[in-house]
Amino acid sequence: MATCPECDAEIEVDEFDVDKGDKLSCPECGSNLEVIGLTPIELDIAADDDDDDDDDDDLEDDEAEEDEEEDEEEDEPWEE
Ligand SMILES: [Zn+2]
After folding, report:
1. Which of 25, 21, 22, 19 is closest to 7 using CA atoms?
2. Mean pLDDT in each 10-residue stretch from start to end of the chain (80 residues)?
3. Cβ neighbours, 10 Å, residue 52
4. Can you give the pTM of this predicted structure?
5. How far apart are CA 46 and CA 48, in angstroms?
6. What is d(CA 24, CA 18) in angstroms, rounded to the nearest whole number?
7. Which of 19, 57, 69, 80 is exposed most, by the fewest CB atoms within 10 A?
């Protein structure tokens, strides 16, 4: 018995039936899992560029424009 690292579901895996590196999918959440250890059986989420929902890195494409303080001398008409 192994545990899905994604949803914690118990997955029946026969340790004599799998090898390190074997891929299987969780019946509960459908994640692609990879066998990373045999005794006890450990599963890890298999990197699959097919289903890449890695959207937790927020790209800052909306850069806040800071107040640009330009040295602009006030153009006041000087009288001599
Ligand atoms: Zn799962």
Report:
1. 25
2. 94 91 94 94 81 58 66 75
3. 8
4. 0.57
5. 6
6. 10
7. 80
Report how far ligand 1's centroid is from the alpha carbon of 27 (Å): 7
- Asked if 35 contacts 21 with a C-beta cutoff of 8 angstroms, the reply is yes
DSSP-based three-state secondary structure for 35: strand
CA of 36 to the centre of ligand 1 (A): 15
DSSP assignment string, 39-58: TTTEEEEPP-GGG-----S-
Alpha-carbon distance 12 to 28, whole Å?
Answer: 12
Q: Of 65, 59, 63, 26, which is closest to residue 43 (Cα–Cα)?
A: 26
Reported as half-sphere exposure (CB side, CA atoms, 13 A), residue 21 has a value of 0
**Cα-flanking dihedrals φ and ψ of residue 50, to 5°?**
-75, -40
